[in-house]
Write a structure and sequence with these properties.
Layout: E1 2-7, H1 11-24, E2 28-34, H2 37-46, E3 51-55, E4 57-58, E5 61-62, H3 63-69, E6 76-82, H4 85-94, E7 98-101, H5 105-117, H6 123-134, E8 142-146, E9 151-155, E10 159-165, E11 168-173, E12 178-181, H7 185-192, E13 197-201, E14 204-207, E15 211-215, E16 221-224, E17 229-231, H8 237-247
Parallel strand pairs: 1-2, 1-3, 3-6, 6-7
Antiparallel strand pairs: 4-5, 8-9, 10-11, 10-14, 11-12, 13-14, 15-16, 16-17
Helix pairs in contact: 2-3, 4-6
Amino acid sequence: MLTAIIVEDMPDALHLLKTDLETNHKDIKIIDTAQSVVTAAKALRSKQPDILFLDIMLGDGTGFDVLEIFPDLKSKIIFVTASDEFAIRAFKFAAIDYVLKPYSSEELAQAVEKAKEQIQPNPERLSILKETLSAPEQKPDKISLHTLDKIIIVSLDDIVRCESDSNNTIFYLEDGQKIFVTKTLKYFTDMLKSYQFLRVHQSHLVNLQCIRAFIKSDGGYLVLKNGDNVPVSVRKKVEVMEILDSMHR
């Protein structure tokens, strides 16, 4: 039997989550609930659960405030957040799982299964999440990349380009390092398109800051600062030329 504490400041959402867990997850025993940072701190001082359901936005602070009070918390965390494009992007940048309100029973079940398997996010990934959530309009400094056996923290400015490899993506960094990530190129295109990354070809996403030249011959290709050549698809040629022109005005 696993133990759980729910931290959620909306009474209806708290009731729904509690009912869903009690009905569909008989192996989880809810040992306490809290609706604020203060009451969450009180609950966690007396008992640390196996799983902590943690709402991001609380009336008297945030879920991060709770985690800062208990830096050595051993509980697996399932973050709960409202459906907000900035919040979703922040979780993706940090490579941390979350449940979106309102969620389905299936989504909750998936989150519980992941929580059972996962290790606690390290402080750096939590920091990426916190910073990206607190400044949604700013370009995040770092991104967490999920490889087959670990999570690597990378500076966004160090990424030269990304290349599709079936349903996976290879990241090429400034120092020559290659990182094989188990997500599609489309996943990262959607994440990075607001931060001067451009999909120039079905298989290639490039950091615009790393382009050295656009060669119009041989079908058209980019020469990057690290010496790599990247093809540009026919339908992307005009867009690439316009962007490069605007960058050098």
